[in-house]
Write a structure and sequence with these properties.
Elements (H helix, E strand, L loop, with lengths): L11 E5 L2 E5 L3 E6 L5 E6 L1 E8 L2 E4 L2 E4 L7 E12 L5 E12 L13
Antiparallel strand pairs: 1-2, 2-3, 3-4, 5-8, 6-7, 8-9
Length: 113
């Protein structure tokens, strides 16, 4: 694999084979781990990785667990419109929690050879 020019500065990195996810507060950068291709950028606001289940924290420190299915949970701020009885709505800031999960390859050049 050649040198990868990341789109942003990493605040957290998670391995979700065959992808590597790089988090900063404005987006998640998803790249193919062995080829380095940019697969997707997920935009958001105040993004945080709250759980990366490929690592388990124990007495001996962080341990890689081979038989645990990769699981990455993310939280981000999203605007939420609240309707009122007076007909006016107001927008509040809410937190959305979701799981990042691979689906399928969108292009043949992203699949493993």
């Amino acid at each position: 694999m050649s040198t990868v020019d990341w789109e942003g500065n990493a605040e957290h990195v998670a391995m979700h084979w065959p992808y590597i996810l790089v988090f900063n507060s404005q987006f998640i950068e998803v790249r193919h781990a062995s080829k380095g291709h940019l697969v997707q950028i997920i935009l958001g606001d105040d993004i945080r990785c709250v759980c990366d289940a490929t690592d388990i924290q124990g007495k001996e420190g962080t341990q890689q667990i081979d038989n645990v299915e990769s699981c990455t949970h993310v939280v981000m701020s999203v605007p939420l419109e609240i309707p009122s009885q007076a007909g006016k709505s107001r927008t509040v800031l809410a937190r959305q929690v979701f799981e990042v999960s691979p689906t399928f390859a969108l292009a043949s050049n992203l699949t493993e050879s």
